[in-house]
């Protein structure tokens, strides 16, 4: 009986560090610090807890969405207006004139669309592997 209690306590103590928040600066904070020490480079934006801000912007008016690791999400870069980057609000991405961008993405995947916004069958891929190659000459709906 004492052995079981001792083993449970030991397991709890050894596993305790799993519940503690990581010490030191986050990846975003590290990248931000390094960028601020350099000149002429993009400086990432971090939230209070150290996570990357979902919408990143640079001087000159370009903004884009990033994943939790700070990697740019394909098809989200905008000039002059900010993309909507919250997970629950990834609607259709459009040009300034209202026409659909050929590459559309949600939180988990990306796909090509026709001029009227219809998904091109067979083009859906995981967001991490998406490229922006949806030229209209490469597919037909």
TrEMBL record:
Thyroglobulin type-1 domain: which residues?
25-85, 93-134
Using the record, list the residue span of the signal peptide; answer none if the entry has no such feature.
1-15
Q: Which UniProt keywords apply?
A: Disulfide bond, Repeat, Secreted, Signal
Compartment annotation: Secreted
Superkingdom classification of source: Eukaryota
CDD domains of this UniProt entry? TY
**InterPro entries in the cross-refs:** Dev_reg/Prot_inhib (IPR051950), Thyroglobulin_1 (IPR000716), Thyroglobulin_1_sf (IPR036857)
Q: Which Pfam families match?
A: Thyroglobulin_1 (PF00086)
- Name the cystine pairs: 65-85
Database matches in SMART domains:
TY
The entry's cellular-component GO terms read:
extracellular space
* Entry coiled-coil feature ranges: none
Which PANTHER family does the record match to this protein?
A: NIDOGEN-2 (PTHR12352:SF3), SECRETED MODULAR CALCIUM-BINDING PROTEIN (PTHR12352)
Name this polypeptide is given: Thyroglobulin type-1 domain-containing protein
Q: What is the lineage of its organism?
A: Eukaryota, Metazoa, Chordata, Craniata, Vertebrata
């Amino acid at each position: 009986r004492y052995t079981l209690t001792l083993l449970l306590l030991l397991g709890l103590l050894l596993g305790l560090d799993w519940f503690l928040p990581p010490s030191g600066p986050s990846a975003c904070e590290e990248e931000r610090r390094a960028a601020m020490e350099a000149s002429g480079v993009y400086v990432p934006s971090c939230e209070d807890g150290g996570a990357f801000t979902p919408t990143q912007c640079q001087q000159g008016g370009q903004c884009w969405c990033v994943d939790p690791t700070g990697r740019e999400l394909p098809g989200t870069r905008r000039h002059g207006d900010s993309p909507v980057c919250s997970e629950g609000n990834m609607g259709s991405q459009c040009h300034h004139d209202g026409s659909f961008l050929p590459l559309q993405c949600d939180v988990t995947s990306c796909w090509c669309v026709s001029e009227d916004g219809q998904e091109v069958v067979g083009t859906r891929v995981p967001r991490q592997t998406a490229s922006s190659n949806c030229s209209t000459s490469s597919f037909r709906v």
